Amino acid sequence: MDVTIFHNPACGTSRNTLELIQHAGIDPAVIEYLKNPPSREQLVRMIADAGLTVRQAVREKGTPYAELGLDNPDLTDDKLLDSMLQTPILINRPFVITPMGTRLSRPSEVVLDILPADAFNGPFTKEDGEQVLDQEGKRIV
Length: 141
Description:
By secondary structure, the chain is α+β, with helices and mostly antiparallel strands. 23% of the residues lie in helices and 15% in strands. The chain is built from 3 helices and 6 strands; from the N terminus they run βαβααββββ.
């Protein structure tokens, strides 16, 4: 299965998402988006395909969001996109693209919506100890 993750290795949610993908036996294309940000076209497509607004795709925590005045509700999508591309840490993560769809995997188990359910054999526990998949590889609700 062709899977791409826009990843930040310093982010626990991103690490958990990558590990879930790998737990499914998939070797994804890993794009460290802080080093290799998406193009404007890619970013716009990912946001739309994930069913988000541009504002929902902007990361606030741990970024210069407030300092840049991005909390101004009058800012256009174009201005927000410009800021995200100029300062990639403002792109929320991780975005995952598979043939089954695109998701902003927050929380990490959202990625399960776009991976084959039968790909998992056994349990999966996130870094914080939260179990996501049971002994049979089934999603814990």
